[in-house]
Amino acid sequence: MQLRPRLRQQKGVGMIEVLVALVIISVSMLGLGALQINSVRFNHQAYLRSQATYLAYDIVDRMRANKAEAEAGTYAVDLSDDSNGSTACETGSCTTAALATYDINQWLSALKTELPQGDGTVATTGNTVTVTIQWDQSQGEAATTTQTYTVEVVL
Question: Boundaries of each Type IV pilin Tt1218-like domain copy (predicted)?
């Protein structure tokens, strides 16, 4: 009687399959985490752009409401203008020029409140109003985001 040699049985194959599955799952979870982080970041950037658009139309609407001063160019403001004093418009009636100053001050204050390091300019040329808003969207890096809105206003 001849004995047949035993076939060698594989040992540890199940453990290797489990380890490969763990590596695949780990890499997938890291990818999902990165996807979530980017999603939150892009959502915040979109929110800031929406706020900038809202604030640009806010100052344009204020100019439409005070046509005399808008035509006179009183609403023109640049980034170096830090005049944010109060006017009589806070306590009662005021002139159209004081209202323009009040509107600009309120707008600049809203920019600083709603956008990180927010600032803006308003320039008028005839019936064309150009509103430029900038803010820091870098989250620690040295970069700013600027949006420019040009609106034809019938004054």
Answer: 34-104
DSSP states along 3-60: PPPPPPPP-SHHHHHHHHHHHHHHHHHHHHHHHHHHHHHHHHHHHHHHHHHHHHHHHH
Cα–Cα dist 73/95, whole Å: 15
Please tell me the distance from the alpha carbon of residue 95 to that of residue 112, in angstroms, as a whole number.
26
- Distance, CA of 23 to CA of 20 (rounded, Å): 5
3-state SS track over 109-130? HHHHHHCCCCEEEEEEECCEEE
Threshold 0.85, pTM exceeds? no
